[in-house]
Amino acid sequence: MIQVEDLVKKYGNRTVVDGLSFSAEKGRIYGFLGPNGAGKSTTMNVMTGYIAANGGKVTVNGHDILKEPEAAKKCIGYLPEVPPLYTDMTVKEYLLFAAELKKVPGKERAAQIDDIMQKTETADVKDRLIRNLSKGYKQRVGLAQALVGDPENLILDEPMTGLDPKQIMEMRDLIKDLAEDHTIILSSHILSEVSAVCDHIMILSNGRLAAEGSPQELQERIQPKAVIEVVVSGTKEQAEKVLSGIDGIGSCTVEDAQEKDSIKITAETAGGADMRRTLSLALSGAGMPILSMNRVEKSLEDIFLEITQDETADASGAAERDEEQETAEKEETDDAGDL
Predict the structure, then answer these.
(1) Is residue 118 assigned to a domain?
(2) What CA–CA distance (Å, rounded) separates 302 from 296?
(3) What is the block-wise mean pLDDT of the chain (339 residues), using blocks of 10 residues?
């Protein structure tokens, strides 16, 4: 379990993470979303002990990341956005090296590495140099090193960046399998993948937690009323007469559809009630054949944009801030030395 309490991180006069609090429990996949500069990667770097916070507290399985860094880091597997690979090593050499750094007992290393390579499907390339691997395999090797030492918590920063659709599906399935035994926190700009993989989503905006919940809970928060679109054969007058006799229908519009002699009905239902069956029976009973019907729901992209719409900084300003932040992070980690 990971618990973050009132986390604050500043770079100069700029507050990147501002009083952020949340907890992550075992067996669940948490998705971090937010615009560039919202504080996602910075939060992950603080959670892993890579950089220090200016305020607040992070505990990993009960260990304070600042007061008990070694005990806390043993419970974390971290995959940065750019995997920390030694490309002149073979896959197996690299994983054995990672096992030595993480102080895995010598007699356990070979068996643990073999098991990890089977899980991540990297066993077939174990003797190849990492520099000769495809992007997808490099991501798998990066994930494999995060699994070394059998940590209970996995923090994955953009694990699907640069992957093709097939590789994304494979990575998605792998993350879901790992969730059975781990707490997983991941960030991604591929919103459809976050929706497909994560069962709890946290949306960051200006360094704060703007919204959180399951994809369904967020959808209900943004769109409390169900919207149904129906295309039928008939006239507007017929449709309006049918709709006026149905309880539970709120505001609705009736307009000409693209198909000849057809109309399009857009109806709202209070409380998210699914009125498709009722509408279908009423319209067909009035001699209005249904050509198409669907329930309109806001996508995760729509939810994301609506929650973060207050971030109005222009692209050049955002790029400048990101460059300043990157420089500050590099200086800070250089001062800290090798981890």
Answers:
(1) no
(2) 12
(3) 93 91 92 85 91 93 93 93 93 96 93 94 95 92 94 92 83 89 87 84 89 81 75 90 84 87 85 78 90 78 72 43 52 49
Instruction: Tell me what pLDDT residue 317 has.
Output: 46
Helix (H, G, I), strand (E, B) or coil at 26: coil
Residue 187: beta bridge partners? 32, 157
Residue that has been written with the tokens 């992209």 in this structure: 301
Q: Is residue 180 part of a domain?
A: yes
Strands (E) across the chain are located at 2-11, 14-24, 29-33, 55-60, 63-64, 76-79, 153-157, 183-187, 200-205, 208-213, 226-233, 249-256, 262-269, 290-296
- So what's the pLDDT on residue 125? 95
Judgement on whether residues 199 and 309 belong to the same structural domain of the protein: yes
pLDDT at 260: 85
Torsion sign across C-alpha atoms 51, 55, 60, 62: positive
The residue range of the domain holding 255 is: 224-296
| Amino acid occupying residue 227 | V
Return the number of other C-beta atoms located less than 10 Å from residue 337's C-beta. 6
Residue 96 placed within a domain: no
pTM assigned to the model: 0.74
Amino acid 2: pLDDT: 93
CB atoms under 10 Å from CB of 186, counted, come to: 23
State the DSSP string of 207-253: TEEEEEE-HHHHHHHH--SEEEEEEEES-HHHHHHHHHT-TTEEEEE
CATH (domain of 194):
3.40.50.300
Question: Which residues contact residue 2 at a Cβ distance below 8 angstroms, ignoring those fewer than 6 apart?
Answer: 23, 24, 47, 58, 59, 60, 61, 153, 183, 185
Both structure tokens of 167? 């590789």
Domain count within the chain: 2
